[in-house]
Amino acid sequence: MHEGFLGTAAPRYADLILLLELTMGLGLLFGAFLAGIRKFRAHAWCQSVIVLMNAASIVLFMLPSFRSHVSPRIPLKLGKSFYALAAAHAALGTVVECAALYILLAAGTTLMPEKVRLVRYRLWMRTVLAAWWVVILLGVATYARWYIPNLFRR
Ligand code: HEM
Q: How far apart are CA 40 and CA 32, in angstroms?
């Protein structure tokens, strides 16, 4: 496996996901700012591109890693932080990505039947943004536990 560039024991793809995900998280905060200054078209574009890029990064990198490293050890090893962090991250991450895709469909298209379109956009968007950052922090914790030796056992 190729060595990473952040100086930890992580392979290159993991360093890439880490940087990509942090950048996307900051991008979402910037997108929220765009909504704040009433640039709603730019806001919609910014958030949509990030949510879709994130879906790609889940399907291409995180899901395969989860299937080979984590799911075979569930539930037997869930007591260990190595697996517990990754499992919590993946569970909340799944909910958050689905909620984000739902917001895109409900706010940006007329594909959804009238009844399930959003009324309280702001509350939904703020909640998902906050939960998204919790997922990023759980991802960073997973990275730290997996690739920075002895961090949790000193
Ligand atoms: C909003 C959604 C998500 C965000 C923002 C996010 C963010 C992150 C971040 C920052 C990392 C650390 C980089 C790394 O260790 O490679 C990470 C790693 C990881 N994520 Fe996610 N993630 C999301 C969704 C998911 C989902 C849905 C799953 C699984 C079903 C998942 C499974 C994993 C796994 C297994 C790792 C460790 C990858 C490895 O290093 O091999 N994530 N994620």
A: 10
Report if residue 114 sits inside a domain: yes
Cα(102) to ligand 1 centroid in Å equals 20
Of the candidates 81, 83, 89, 88, the one whose C-alpha atom is nearest the C-alpha of residue 71 is 83
| Domain carrying residue 63 | 12-147
The whole-number pLDDT of residue 130 equals 98
- CB atoms closer than 10 angstroms to residue 141: 18
Whether 5 is covered by a domain: the verdict is no
What's the predicted TM-score (pTM) here? 0.94
For 133-152, how does the pLDDT look when each residue is reduced to its tens digit (9 = 90+)?
A: 999 999 999 999 999 987 76
Q: Let me know if residue 133 belongs to a domain.
A: yes
Q: How many angstroms separate the CA atoms of 4 and 35, rounded?
A: 36
Has residue 7 been placed in a domain?
no
Q: Among 2, 5, 17, say which to mutate for ligand 1: greatest number of ligand atoms within 8 Å of CB.
A: 17
Q: Which two tokens stand for residue 46?
A: 């910014």
